[in-house]
Structure formats: C-alpha cells, structure tokens
C-alpha cells in the first residue's frame, strides 16, 4: 500500500483533531487562533491561543472561527487549519492525498461548501471529502457499518448536539441542535451572575460543569473564582450543585426532546439494532456527570458512553480513510 499522507479531520467548534495516515492521531488542539490586531499577524493557534482567551492581552484578539459546528469565519478557519496541518506534518507522496472532514449532519449545502473552500484556500493538493459526524461517531463507537449495522448516536460537542439513527455508513434520521457544551457554559455564567452577582470566565464555568454537571459531584458544591459584579473585584465563591444543575436543565431538556423525536421515528427494521446496540453517547458532553442516566430514563433503553468520547468522531473518520486506502470505498455523504 502506498502512503498518500491522507488526513482525517474533526474540525469541531471547541476542539480540532487530526489523524494522519500511517501515523495515527497527531494533533488535538482547541479550535482557536489569536491574531495581533495591530498587524493582523497570527500570534498563536490552538492551545496557545485558547489560554489567552478571556484574559484580554493588549492587541490580541482570540477567535474561535467555528460556530455551531460550522465555519463562521472563513479566513480565520483557513489560517488555523493550515497551521494545524503544518504542525501535523502529513508525509507528502506522489499520490494526491485525501482529506476527510467531519461535518454536522444538519449542515447546509453552503456550510458544506465553506469547508471545501477552507481547505482549498491553503491546501489545494487535498482531494476533500465530507463525512456526517454521526456516521463517523457510529464507526468510532465500533458499529459494524460495513455489514449494514444500525445504531443510535448522540454526539454532544461544544456547538452542536447531533442525535441520529444511522445504518451502513448513512444517516437514517437525524436532528442537529445548535446547543451543546458552549451553551451549557453560558447558562452557568448567566446563572452565577443572576443569583450570586458573580461574573465567571468561560473557563471557570466549564470547570463547574465538568465537576458537578447534573449530579452536584461528590460534595454538592464547588469553589469558583470570578469578579463581583457590584464591586468589580475578584471574589471566591462556593457554587452549589443545584445552581449548576438548574442552569443546565433547559439544554438537557432540549437534548431529551430531540432523542424522543428521533426514537419515535425510527424504522421498525432498525429497532432491534438500536435496542441491542444501546444508545451510544459520544463527544465531550457525553462526560457530563449525570447525562447518560438522564438520557437512559428518557429513552427507556440502555445508554453507554463510548470509549474515549472526545476522539470518537476522528476515530471513525480514520477507520473510513483506512478502508479507502485498502481499496474498499463505502459511499459517503
Ligand atoms: N468532563 C466533561 N463534562 C462535561 N463536558 C465536558 C467534559 N469534558 C469536555 N466537555 C465539553 O465537551 C465540549 C467539547 O467536546 P467536543 O470536542 O466533542 O466538541 P467539538 O467536536 O469541538 O464541537 P462540535 O462537535 O459541536 O463542533 C466542550 O464544551 C467541553 O466543555
Ligand atoms: Mg464534534
């Protein structure tokens, strides 16, 4: 088999992952780029850009160029991806390399075209193909899509929650909610400000979400540092699990609604695959304490969090690329 240096890319709202043929997963970074507003030059990308966010260093603008799983800022996304690919250093061979990029199932034609534009702007050598995220997640979760196996996937990312029934490398039914981890962070920030007069950074809100989620964690409270909204000075506060769970409730309800809707619309022929295979929860949001139990109560069928949920989508896309390199080529979205 000749190596083309093909890549599988999970270009997420919060995290970008790049898998390179022959080398495996080589890059996992926040989807962020910092630009020097005086000169327009790129000051930092990925984790180095993300750590500057919220801290407002002079003349630095931190951009998250994807919103709700799709390209919001074309130039910044192209710049960021170019830099990530430079870092990932795929080997260039004589054959034209493929780039398989994951997109939300609900992405419009224009949104899909913009992903192609982003890659061709700086990396015209790649033959770009797109794969629907729930299909990649299903493959990454270990479903045998080659044999037409079906399953039910919930991918809770940063910008989108994808709820989908899939079978044989295809989406059967899907709903994309433009509401996921970022919306959870914002809900916690709003609740802390309204109830405690505490202005939290996104990072602090995210930490509360991760430690307490819907269950309150071990202690039922957690400490957070923010700015007192009246005095404008830093303040340390004990934040209750109840505040966090209540803030997250509308988002969890929206996810529950989508699960219910898709479950009540699956073809009879898929029912057995779904029940036996269980609902698979992937994406970073799958780690939210209490979410799997809540979904299980709604769905009334078993729910499992996939192995390594943050890498599930790129793992599935890589599996497809590997199959293609070996000469097998299931149809794509
Ligand atoms: N332990 C955790 N508990 C709750 N949320 C978590 C946890 N770990 C990560 N997250 C959240 O998961 C989200 C990132 O997940 P992921 O990398 O799957 O998203 P993404 O692929 O970048 O976004 P999208 O698929 O929507 O474009 C963030 O909102 C992050 O805060
Ligand atoms: Mg994702």
Would you mind describing this structure in some detail?
This protein is α+β, with helices and mostly antiparallel strands and 333 residues long. The protein has 3 domains: 144 residues, ATPase, nucleotide binding domain (Nucleotidyltransferase, domain 5), CATH 3.30.420.40; 96 residues, ATPase, nucleotide binding domain (Nucleotidyltransferase, domain 5, 2-Layer Sandwich), CATH 3.30.420.40; 67 residues, ATPase, substrate binding domain, subdomain 4 (Actin, Chain A, domain 4, Alpha-Beta Complex). The protein has 10 helices and 18 strands. A 5-stranded mixed sheet has the order 3-2-1-9-10, with helices on both faces. A 5-stranded mixed sheet has the order 13-12-11-17-18, sandwiched between helices. Strand 17, helix 9 and strand 18 form a beta-alpha-beta unit. The model has no long low-confidence stretch (mean pLDDT 93). The chain binds adenosine-5'-triphosphate and magnesium ion (MG). Magnesium ion (MG) binds next to loops.
Overall morphology: flat
Query: What distance separates the N and C termini?
Result: 25 Å
Average pLDDT for all residues: 93
Within the largest sheet, what's the order of strands?
A: 3-2-1-9-10
Q: Identify every distinct bound molecule in the structure, by name, code or SMILES.
A: adenosine-5'-triphosphate, magnesium ion
Overall domain count: 3
Decide which structural class fits the backbone: alpha+beta
Uncertain residue segments: none
Q: How would you spell out the order of helices and strands?
A: EEEEEHEEEHEHEHEEEHEHEEHHEHEH
Rg: 20 Å
Count of DSSP-assigned helices: 10
Query: Major beta sheet, specifics?
Result: 5 strands, mixed
What CATH first level of the largest domain would be assigned?
Alpha Beta
Helix content range of the residues, please? Answer: 25-40%
Number of E-state strands: 18
């Amino acid at each position: 088999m000749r190596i083309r240096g093909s890549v599988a890319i999970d270009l997420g709202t919060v995290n970008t992952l790049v898998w390179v043929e022959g080398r495996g997963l080589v890059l996992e970074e926040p989807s962020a780029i910092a630009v020097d507003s005086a000169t327009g030059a790129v000051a930092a990308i990925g984790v180095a850009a993300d750590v500057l966010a919220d801290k407002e260093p002079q003349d630095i603008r931190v951009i998250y160029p994807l919103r709700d799983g799709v390209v919001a800022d074309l130039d910044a996304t192209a710049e960021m991806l170019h830099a990530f690919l430079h870092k990932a250093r795929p080997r260039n061979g004589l054959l034209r390399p493929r780039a398989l990029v994951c997109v939300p199932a609900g992405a419009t034609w224009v949104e899909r075209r913009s992903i192609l534009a982003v890659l061709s702007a700086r990396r015209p050598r790649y033959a770009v193909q797109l794969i629907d995220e729930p299909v990649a997640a299903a493959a990454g979760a270990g479903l045998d899509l080659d044999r037409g196996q079906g399953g039910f996937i919930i991918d809770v990312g940063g910008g989108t929650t994808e709820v989908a029934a899939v079978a044989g490398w295809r989406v059967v039914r899907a709903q994309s909610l433009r509401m996921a981890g970022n919306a959870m962070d914002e809900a916690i920030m709003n609740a802390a400000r309204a109830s405690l007069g505490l202005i939290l950074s996104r990072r602090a809100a995210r930490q509360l979400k991760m430690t307490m989620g819907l269950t309150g964690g071990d202690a039922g409270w957690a400490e957070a540092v923010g700015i007192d909204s009246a005095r404008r000075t830093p303040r340390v506060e004990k934040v209750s699990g109840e505040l966090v769970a209540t803030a997250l409730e509308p988002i969890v309800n929206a996810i529950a609604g989508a699960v219910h809707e898709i479950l009540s619309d699956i073809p009879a022929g898929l029912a057995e695959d779904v029940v036996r295979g269980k609902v698979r929860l992937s994406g970073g949001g799958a780690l939210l304490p209490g979410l799997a139990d809540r979904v299980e109560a709604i769905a009334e069928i078993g729910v499992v969090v996939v192995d390594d949920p943050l890498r599930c989508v790129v793992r599935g896309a890589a599996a497809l690329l590997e199959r293609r390199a070996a000469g097998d080529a299931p149809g794509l979205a």
